[in-house]
Amino acid sequence: MTNSNDLDRRAVLALVAGATLAGSMAYAQDATPSDDDMSAPVVEEFSMGNPDAAVTVIEYASFTCPHCKNFHHDVFPDLKANYIDTGKILFIYRPVYFDGPGLWADMVARCGGQERYFGIASMLYERQSDWAHLSSQADVSAALQAIGRLAGLEDDAIIACMQDNELAQALVGAFRENMARDNVQATPTFIINGELNSNMGYATFAQILDEKLAE
Predict the structure, then answer these.
(1) Number of alpha carbons in the 13 Å side-chain half-sphere of residue 115
(2) In sequence order, which residues have a C-beta less than 8 Å from that of residue 113 and are 6 or more positions away?
(3) Disulfide-capable partner of 90 in 49, 75, 103, 192 (CB 3.0 to 4.6 Å)?
(4) Which contiguous run of DSSP H or E holds residue 208?
């Protein structure tokens, strides 16, 4: 059986929409974008590897998903060493937001920019049990800020990133669009050269990649 967290789309979208507004406002009462600022922020997509590679892997994952944590602990290091770092594939990470903490975690990772995103993402997965299931928003915020500091981010920068309500809304919009277009039903999900794949171990992943690379 494939280990995955099934997505109940209506429940997830309702939860995330509420968490985005209520949670962001809990972090900062003045985070609401101005009425005269009509330009939506650009949602940056984070990737690693060879942009000209013949094989592209897109991972859909949630920072609060335990199976995603296991993948990034057990499978991703070998995938990175053997296929990403060697330039054989382009790897794109697209976050899925099951809940407010998952959204806020992604916003902290984005605070590090392209150079630090994947390093912070790795820390978020490694320390998932320290922050993902805390009972209060304040505790989640404090735990995520601590991870940001460990990654070398300044407190003011972390707080500003977590308070960016306009970006939060744009991220949720991009998440909804990506999920609907690619028919993502669970995490982690992998799209390899346009083909949908569920969670898998390294041996199966490597076999699929080798077959694609040989085409």
Answers:
(1) 3
(2) none
(3) 49
(4) helix 202-214
pLDDT on residue 194: 96
Q: What is the DSSP string of 38-50?
A: -PPPP---EEEE-
Summarised one tens digit per residue, pLDDT across range 18-76 is 554 444 434 333 434 444 445 778 899 999 999 999 999 999 999 999 999 999 999 99
CA–CA gap between residue 160 and residue 156 (Å, rounded): 6
Q: Six-digit token pair at 99? A: 């809940």
Query: pTM of the full predicted structure?
Result: 0.84
Domains of the chain: 5-30+45-214 (3.40.30.10)
Tokens 């978020």, residue located: 124
Letter for the amino acid at 170? A
Tokens standing for residue 122: 């790795």
**Token pair listed for 105:** 């975690």
Please tell me whether the peptide bond between 188 and the residue prior to it is cis, using omega within 30 degrees of 0.
yes
